[in-house]
Amino acid sequence: MNMKSKDKIVVIMGATGSGKSSLSVDLALHFQAEIINSDKMQFYDGLNITTNQSTMAERRGVPHHLLGELNPEEGEVTASEFRNVAAQAISGITHRKKLPILAGGSNSYIHDLLANSFDPENYPFSPNGSICSGLRYDCCFIWIDVARSVLFEYLSLRLDKMMKTGMFEEIAEFHRAKKAPKEPMGIWKAIGVQEFDGYLKTYSGMGKWDLVRKKAYDKAVRAIKENTFQLTRDQIKKIKKLRAAGWDIRKVDATSTFKEAIRAAKEGKGGDEMQRKIWNKQVVEPCVEMVKRHLEQPIDYSSEIDFGSFFLKSVIY
């Protein structure tokens, strides 16, 4: 019987749009790491603008796993499937002597991957669900937090920009080319797809742009924003529940970076250099120190016995 050492990993959490992808790349470049996506909408190939999937340029040469790998017509990835494929990705990364970084906003999948005890029937955040406090990896948890009012303003501006750079056209083409399931599943649950469903059924062509059509379009955009805001509330609530259950999740405040992004957007200026400077100082540098301390700690050992049987963008926006 051998005591089994736990692999060290970094887990980056936070609300949608808070910079998880950007920070994961920053840390990966510093620590020779590879990134595993834990955002269930980004598992799929397609709707890259709508799901805000990192481009190849934004990945800056860092290997990413479980990002844009599934056909959009494939069904929902179950928690069990994610637990298995993500664990395989972690094993492969550690075998290559690299640091695994898990980044994404699907907190139930994060729980189900990391929990020592896994029950596929248990949804950890339901009223009767249970959160497992024992973890099967030695985790350094980082929560990127942004003041709610600032994040909501930023997300609203970000969506306006996404709409101007092809999000609507991407969704319209997706609806035209793919057969919708009877009930939304998989990538069909992505925010934006359902909100534009009624509009696209009514206005399927490029017809006349009149006041009625504009109102329907604006209503769909407002619904996307409201549903995005609700998603961020739910994500933060889940992170707090994990914390309350004993997960050592350390918060890093990124509000100043987002205030700068908003200022630059409103003034019509790039602001990239200043945003990056603030981001590096207030987010990246403290996170680098956090990860350094985590990696320098003695190897943690699992309480389980091994019987041998045992998947910012460069700058915010």
UniProtKB/TrEMBL annotation:
Keyword ATP-binding carried by entry: yes
A GO CC term attached to the entry: mitochondrion
GO function term, MF aspect, one: ATP binding
Entry keyword set: ATP-binding, Cytokinin biosynthesis, Nucleotide-binding, Transferase
InterPro entries for the chain: Dimethylallyltransferase, P-loop_NTPase
Gene3D superfamilies to which the protein is assigned, alphabetical: Crystal structure of tRNA isopentenylpyrophosphate transferase (bh2366) domain, P-loop containing nucleotide triphosphate hydrolases
Single biological process term from Gene Ontology: cytokinin biosynthetic process
Family of the protein in this entry: Belongs to the IPP transferase family.
Name this protein carries in UniProt: Uncharacterized protein
Organism: Thlaspi arvense (Field penny-cress)
